[in-house]
């Protein structure tokens, strides 16, 4: 499927449809064929008719195209299956987590730095109304609906594991995913510059806002919070951990990428376009996903959960994802461009488990290892749900974004 517009350069003005050289290589680098070339339609001669394909051939070609488009989702499934069978030894889990969290995220944001025009990035950082609009949904909408759903379903004390219910509440309080969102927004032809700006702001606010929300919702007098010890009052370690990771894996690689593309624009274009090295961002994200599930299986987080609890948890998390992305899409479409709407939909409906682990570890000191694993399980499961859902939605979102251009051509404005 052809991507018809550079997501990074999509702004509120939906009538902008020119193709400059910077748009081509700074935008949809995974699919340069989406842009018109000097060789396209120059002869004016009709091509010879091809013989009609059989029904089976069309079906097989359709399956092949779908598999090529959703290769990320297929590889993710293979990696999760691999992680369930073979895990990194427990003694090396912390080292593995540190290396992947820093190196893989740094690769993603270095590529973003090389592809995002500086002017567009700065413009999106200055949109203060957008900051309020996105962050209110990312924190207040998601946390309140998570708490409401858990409160409505936690009627049977004997059915659900309390640690799972606490984990769902905590998951709803987390900031948006930062690396994953940029990959998916690019695939769906959304405004990637807006995604980078808002996800970065959200993760800077995370240690403060997420901590306050978790403390608010878990301090209520409900039965499933009885397992929690007194929350720790010192969050200095959490702040140091989060801001160190943001600095080394997000800000520095992003700045280095911007500098490199200013110094060597032609070389960067060749590497990202002709050598297809932009795919490294998706590969780095797959490494992060594998690392998360490898750690979950190594800690036996799935082994001690009853099957009915697992099914119920998955059902709740799928419902929450669908609810969040539907609300975000509907309210964004009222006043935002299609590219911005795509970006906001992904920002609101996704969560990062990278912050949930240190927060729960530091806030609930004294919680047993088994209970800690179970509280983190909803975050791990939701990661797979948001990846599968977001990846599949790139297909209709790309079509929807491309319709604007055809509509403009039909009106004679393109």
Quickly describe the structure.
With 414 residues, the protein is mainly α.
Task: Name some characteristics of this structure.
single chain; 414 residues; mainly alpha; Na+/H+ antiporter like fold; 16 helices; 70% helix; globular; disordered N terminus
Describe the structure.
The protein is mostly helical. The protein has one domain: Na+/H+ antiporter like fold (Up-down Bundle), CATH 1.20.1530. 70% of the residues lie in helices and 0% in strands. It contains 16 helices and no strands. The chain has helices spanning 21-26, 55-69, 71-85, 93-115, 118-125, 128-153, 162-173, 179-187, 192-218, 236-263, 265-274, 280-298, 307-333, 338-349, 353-363, 369-410. Helix 7 (162-173) crosses helix 9 (192-218) and helix 13 (307-333) runs parallel beside helix 16 (369-410). 42% of the residues are buried.
Lay out the secondary structure.
Elements: H1 21-26, H2 55-69, H3 71-85, H4 93-115, H5 118-125, H6 128-153, H7 162-173, H8 179-187, H9 192-218, H10 236-263, H11 265-274, H12 280-298, H13 307-333, H14 338-349, H15 353-363, H16 369-410
Organism: Neosartorya fischeri (strain ATCC 1020 / DSM 3700 / CBS 544.65 / FGSC A1164 / JCM 1740 / NRRL 181 / WB 181)
GO cellular component, one term: plasma membrane
Protein name: Sodium bile acid symporter family protein
